[in-house]
Automatic annotation (TrEMBL):
Superkingdom of the source species: Bacteria
Pfam families (alphabetical): HisG
One MF annotation (Gene Ontology) recorded for this entry: ATP phosphoribosyltransferase activity
Reactions listed under catalytic activity: 1-(5-phospho-beta-D-ribosyl)-ATP + diphosphate = 5-phospho-alpha-D-ribose 1-diphosphate + ATP
Family classification: Belongs to the ATP phosphoribosyltransferase family. Short subfamily.
GO cellular component terms attached to this protein's record: cytoplasm
An individual GO BP term: L-histidine biosynthetic process
E.C. numbers: 2.4.2.17
The UniProt record lists the keyword Endoplasmic reticulum: no
Protein's UniProt name: ATP phosphoribosyltransferase
Annotated source species: Roseitalea porphyridii
This protein's UniProt keywords: Amino-acid biosynthesis, Glycosyltransferase, Histidine biosynthesis, Transferase
Enzyme class: transferase
Pathway entry: Amino-acid biosynthesis; L-histidine biosynthesis; L-histidine from 5-phospho-alpha-D-ribose 1-diphosphate: step 1/9
Length: 236
């Protein structure tokens, strides 16, 4: 059997949580002897290889079909591919790395609580300010779908954010933001609030595979992960 490649986050808490989760279902990853190596073995298995990549690289490699499976954030996959629902299979939700992609506006906008309120602001923005309403984000695709397709808001301009998105309104670079948050503390520290219907995606770490021709060893891992998550879920 040819070895299948499973990509995992290369650093941080996502890596630690993924390793612990795999160990819990009997998949023990042996760290590479050279800490600079991005490849690892699995104890007692010669049919499975581990590739340590950044979370964004995992999404890209999955889409290109160069790896058999990957553990990464759902937000990166949904933002990376317009056809992600058919291009990749969400094989298992993993119960860690939870964070929401949200629409946030300045707390001082007392009369703006919903996307409909924001649509009214955007519609009249040019007349009042001589320019289009601006949204800072690194989530271009998710923002366009949420604003244009789901809420019919067309009069806005996306400002590409390469970091510190929460500071864009205070710096005068944008009027609102779309960003990911886990606790909301950074938003509150920058005097921003999430709209009541402004949650675009509730993301978490997931196992993604190709939609078909999944290697049996990957399908087995996906099944064990789903069973472990079901067992860990609180009774409904």
């Amino acid at each position: 059997m040819n070895p299948a490649t499973l990509a995992m986050p290369s650093k941080g808490r996502l890596r630690d949580d993924a390793l612990a989760l795999l160990a819990g279902i009997g998949i023990t990853v042996i760290p590479p002897a050279d800490s600079r190596s991005y490849r690892a073995r699995v104890e007692g298995r010669d049919d499975l290889e581990i590739a340590f990549l950044s979370a964004s690289e995992i999404a890209r490699e999955l889409g290109a079909g160069r790896i058999d499976a990957g553990i990464t954030g759902e937000d990166l996959v949904r933002e990376g591919f317009a056809d992600s629902e058919t291009r990749l299979d969400l094989a298992a939700r993993l119960g860690f790395g939870q964070a929401d992609v949200v629409v946030a506006v300045p707390e001082a906008w007392f009369d703006v609580e919903t996307m409909a309120d924001l649509g009214e602001v955007a519609a009249g923005f040019r007349a009042r300010h001589g320019r289009r309403f601006r949204i800072a984000t690194k989530y271009w695709r998710l923002t366009q779908r949420h604003f244009s397709q789901e809420h019919g808001i067309q009069l806005y301009r996306i400002i590409e954010s390469l970091g510190a998105t929460e500071g864009a309104p205070a710096a005068g670079q944008a009027d609102a933001i779309v960003d990911i948050t886990s606790t909301g503390s950074t938003l509150r520290a920058n005097q921003l609030k999430v709209l009541t219907d402004g949650v675009i995606l509730r993301s978490e770490a997931c196992l993604f595979t190709a939609p078909e021709n999944v290697p049996p060893q990957i399908a087995d891992i996906a099944g064990r992960l789903r069973a472990a998550q079901k067992k860990a879920a609180p009774p409904s």
